[in-house]
């Protein structure tokens, strides 16, 4: 069964990746057709063609390697005016790119080309793919946090400590000399549902904890629901040292690596864990937070890749927040699906992975380098700047920007991307990230 679940997790992520890539290309396809550009191909994957079908002027299909997708638009760049063989490797690359571009321009449809579109329409077409991934991530995160909910402490009490053990004690059982915990002394029982504390209604255990921790030594009126009946109790938190944690539950440490502690109120009760549905604004907020994290990863990508290379050679543990290949994402999805946890927890983990994958597709494609979408956007904007500049100084309209001149740089970028993918692939095969501690 564990093997089937593992394979199921991988299939879930492969299908999700395929849909994400497909919708990314739809984000380019729809505005391109809306603006009248001739689209010759819509393909998911690269390499040999597995299946295709022509509908109207566009061929739709799938290729062998599910590592991306593309649409073939007519006239991405101005038609070539150069004839004859080119000399030199870079000039040859440029000429080959121009020839391939010329072949996309059908006879009699020279006006239905991408480069002739107004700048804003070109930007919309190229933004369409990444924005589609951003929208998809927002939908996934909204379903995750507002539909399924976030697993956190509920207002239902799961346990009540019988006593307060001395600081630093390793004892697990109370003795007659240990004082009763404030919660036990107040009469709070497992199964009670917190309604309000100190007159403030509480809907999560985190809200209750915040009130308790801010009130050491203060008598707090507590209302609980016990078997459908309201009970009025009074609890007095004692002062206790507790470690400070971040939103992810990780403890803060100082410059010397010592865990930071703070004196707060403590009563000695624990909550039942459950999925708590969040407001609809939580999904977009999660998207924004995830985008910021991935953008930070991209900025620090050279150093992150160096760390991956070092860990691959030395066999040391990899950074769980580091970059992954498709293989790594699939492996992680399989581990999440096969882990010993409730079904909703596993589904939440898989949806979180898929949402994060779409954020990565959005951020990565916005890098302003060809052949990525961000590079095409920069070319369009530069064309617009040249036109505005010419209009301001009353000069003739400039010729469209010929991005084929950037093909050598594009080849360098593509080579770096391939090398990066090969490194991550090798690392995910031979020294995978162990997030689950398995």
TrEMBL record:
<dbReference type="GO" id="GO:0004222">
    <property type="term" value="F:metalloendopeptidase activity"/>
</dbReference>
<feature type="domain" description="PDZ">
    <location>
        <begin position="146"/>
        <end position="228"/>
    </location>
</feature>
<protein>
    <submittedName>
        <fullName>Membrane-associated protease RseP (Regulator of RpoE activity)</fullName>
    </submittedName>
</protein>
<keyword id="KW-0482">Metalloprotease</keyword>
<feature type="transmembrane region" description="Helical">
    <location>
        <begin position="6"/>
        <end position="23"/>
    </location>
</feature>
<dbReference type="InterPro" id="IPR001478">
    <property type="entry name" value="PDZ"/>
</dbReference>
<keyword id="KW-1133">Transmembrane helix</keyword>
<keyword id="KW-0862">Zinc</keyword>
<feature type="transmembrane region" description="Helical">
    <location>
        <begin position="406"/>
        <end position="427"/>
    </location>
</feature>
<dbReference type="InterPro" id="IPR004387">
    <property type="entry name" value="Pept_M50_Zn"/>
</dbReference>
<keyword id="KW-0378">Hydrolase</keyword>
<keyword id="KW-0812">Transmembrane</keyword>
<dbReference type="InterPro" id="IPR041489">
    <property type="entry name" value="PDZ_6"/>
</dbReference>
<dbReference type="GO" id="GO:0016020">
    <property type="term" value="C:membrane"/>
</dbReference>
<dbReference type="Pfam" id="PF17820">
    <property type="entry name" value="PDZ_6"/>
</dbReference>
<comment type="similarity">
    <text>Belongs to the peptidase M50B family.</text>
</comment>
<dbReference type="GO" id="GO:0006508">
    <property type="term" value="P:proteolysis"/>
</dbReference>
<dbReference type="Pfam" id="PF02163">
    <property type="entry name" value="Peptidase_M50"/>
</dbReference>
<keyword id="KW-0472">Membrane</keyword>
<dbReference type="InterPro" id="IPR008915">
    <property type="entry name" value="Peptidase_M50"/>
</dbReference>
<dbReference type="InterPro" id="IPR036034">
    <property type="entry name" value="PDZ_sf"/>
</dbReference>
<feature type="transmembrane region" description="Helical">
    <location>
        <begin position="123"/>
        <end position="145"/>
    </location>
</feature>
<keyword id="KW-0645">Protease</keyword>
């Amino acid at each position: 069964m564990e093997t089937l679940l593992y394979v199921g997790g991988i299939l879930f992520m492969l299908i999700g990746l395929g849909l994400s890539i497909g919708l990314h290309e739809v984000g380019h396809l729809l505005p391109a057709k809306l603006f009248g550009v001739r689209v010759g191909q819509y393909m998911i994957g690269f390499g040999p063609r597995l299946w295709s079908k022509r509908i109207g002027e566009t061929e739709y299909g799938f290729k062998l390697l599910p590592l991306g997708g593309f649409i073939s638009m007519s006239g991405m760049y101005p038609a070539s005016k150069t004839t004859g063989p080119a000399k030199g490797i870079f000039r040859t690359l440029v000429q080959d790119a121009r020839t391939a571009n010329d072949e996309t321009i059908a006879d009699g449809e020279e006006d239905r080309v991408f480069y002739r579109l107004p700048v804003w329409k070109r930007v919309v077409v190229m933004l369409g793919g990444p924005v589609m991934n951003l929208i998809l991530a927002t939908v996934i995160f909204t379903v995750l946090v507002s539909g399924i909910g976030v697993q956190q402490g509920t207002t239902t009490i799961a346990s009540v400590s019988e006593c307060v053990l001395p600081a630093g004690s390793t004892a697990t059982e109370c003795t007659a000399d240990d004082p009763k915990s404030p919660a036990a002394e107040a009469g709070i029982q497992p199964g009670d549902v917190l309604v309000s504390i100190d007159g403030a209604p509480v809907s999560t255990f985190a809200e209750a904890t915040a009130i308790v921790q801010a009130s050491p030594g203060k008598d707090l009126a507590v209302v609980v629901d016990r078997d459908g009946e309201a009970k009025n109790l009074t609890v007095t938190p004692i002062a206790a040292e507790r470690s400070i944690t971040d939103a992810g539950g990780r403890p803060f440490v100082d410059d010397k690596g010592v865990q930071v502690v703070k004196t707060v109120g403590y009563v000695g009760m624990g909550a039942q864990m459950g999925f708590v549905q969040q407001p609809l604004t939580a999904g977009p907020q999660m998207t924004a937070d995830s985008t910021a994290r991935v953008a930070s990863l991209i900025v620090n990508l050279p150093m992150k890749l160096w760390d991956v290379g070092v860990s691959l050679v030395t066999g040391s543990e990899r950074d769980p927040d580091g970059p992954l290949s498709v293989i790594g994402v699939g492996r992680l999805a399989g581990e999440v699906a096969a882990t010993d946890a409730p079904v909703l927890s596993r589904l939440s983990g898989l949806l979180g992975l898929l949402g994060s994958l779409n954020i990565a597709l959005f951020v990565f494609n916005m890098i302003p380098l060809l052949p990525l979408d961000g590079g095409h956007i920069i070319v369009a904007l530069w064309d617009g700047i040249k036109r505005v500049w010419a209009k301001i100084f009353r000069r003739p309209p400039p010729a469209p920007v010929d991005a084929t001149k950037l093909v050598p740089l594009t080849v360098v970028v593509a080579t770096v991307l391939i090398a990066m993918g090969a490194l991550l692939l090798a690392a995910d095969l031979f020294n995978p990230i162990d997030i689950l501690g398995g």
